[in-house]
């Protein structure tokens, strides 16, 4: 059976500042999810949050970028939660709903979309059922998954499965998107096969504010997509700073794909510093946290959650997901991240403590620079 897995997220309001959505907002989304499961539009699904972003994770049979799914369900669900947020006086009601009424699909309208369509066959010799993970970030840039994905899919020092599993040893095709491309409707993408082109992949992913991994496919079964990342930059839609992009990713695991321990390894060993944080304009290390965690850390220390699901060949989820970072195994990584965060915060706004110039260009700081420009004078030397 052909199944589509969708993970669509949006910030439509939060309590006491940009911390987390209210229970009533989550209930509004959950009710529409259930209604659409009952009507047969969707097969199964669940609602979570990571900081102030609500994620709807669900299965259906309508393919990627489907209007009934994106607009008829997801947009309507976020709209319902935004109305609750408005009635409750929550901060930033409807923040990520950047257009009046999206036509067709919600890509480019504000919400982040990760989607993969695949065949599930109970008799398949290599994939009789599905096992997948959802990663969600808050207070961070869409390139936040670049480094962890690079390490998992190209570096045996972080993923020994690339040596141990002959199907993974054949490598991957990585699709990278140029998030700054401002053409009409067309995206600017490049497809690179690894391991041969690993250093070319590295050369692009080095700049996570412009280039992001959008998808990864197996080279053992080239039609099998293992990764989908929501990689858009909100300021390119809105033309100004409207909050951080806060990406979401689907990563299928086990069998012909990496095992969960190989996918989460970089979050323990590398603890990368990423752009985002307070006003989306600083650089701080990511903090692995349980799903449904509010952002209350100093200076919006950016958070990442990771949950795992099983799905049967009919697209039904096992009743519970597993929460990877909700475990004391991650306390040490959290401690290292907090220590690194405190170190970089000591230099306040200077140099690399603030995000790079292209990010800051969408903030009010440029107005001050423009005003000061007029006060500059030329001096003969
Ligand atoms: P289990 O025996 O616990 O399933 O271990 C599987 C494994 O190989 C871990 O990568
Ligand atoms: P989000 O609302 O996109 O999470 O980010 C808000 C922000 O700018 C943090 O200071
Ligand atoms: Mg917010
Ligand atoms: Mg957010
Ligand atoms: Mg945001
Ligand atoms: Mg086992």
Automatic annotation (TrEMBL):
Indicate which residues the UniProt annotation says bind Mg(2+) 4.
245
Give the active-site positions.
Answer: 11, 241, 244
- Enzyme Commission number(s) of this protein: 3.1.3.11, 4.1.2.13
- The residues that hold dihydroxyacetone phosphate are 18, 139, 279
List the InterPro entries hit by this protein, alphabetically: FBPase_V, FBPase_V_sf
- Sequence positions that bind Mg(2+) 2: 52-53, 138, 246
Q: Summarize where Mg(2+) 1 binds, as residue positions.
A: 11, 18, 52, 95
A Gene Ontology annotation in the biological process aspect, one of them, is: gluconeogenesis
Provide the coiled-coil residue spans: none
Q: In which pathway does it act?
A: Carbohydrate biosynthesis; gluconeogenesis
State where beta-D-fructose 1,6-bisphosphate binds.
18, 91, 104-105, 139, 279, 362
Q: Which cofactor does it need?
A: Mg(2+)
Q: Which GO terms describe its molecular function?
A: fructose 1,6-bisphosphate 1-phosphatase activity; fructose-bisphosphate aldolase activity; magnesium ion binding
> What reaction(s) does this enzyme catalyze?
beta-D-fructose 1,6-bisphosphate + H2O = beta-D-fructose 6-phosphate + phosphate; beta-D-fructose 1,6-bisphosphate = D-glyceraldehyde 3-phosphate + dihydroxyacetone phosphate
- What does the UniProt entry state concerning the protein's domains? Consists of a single catalytic domain, but remodels its active-site architecture via a large structural change to exhibit dual activities.
| Functional summary from the UniProt entry | Catalyzes two subsequent steps in gluconeogenesis: the aldol condensation of dihydroxyacetone phosphate (DHAP) and glyceraldehyde-3-phosphate (GA3P) to fructose-1,6-bisphosphate (FBP), and the dephosphorylation of FBP to fructose-6-phosphate (F6P).
Q: Which protein family is it in?
A: Belongs to the FBP aldolase/phosphatase family.
State what protein this is by name.
Answer: Fructose-1,6-bisphosphate aldolase/phosphatase
Q: Which organism is it from?
A: Nitrosomonas halophila
Q: What is the lineage of its organism?
A: Bacteria, Pseudomonadati, Pseudomonadota, Betaproteobacteria, Nitrosomonadales
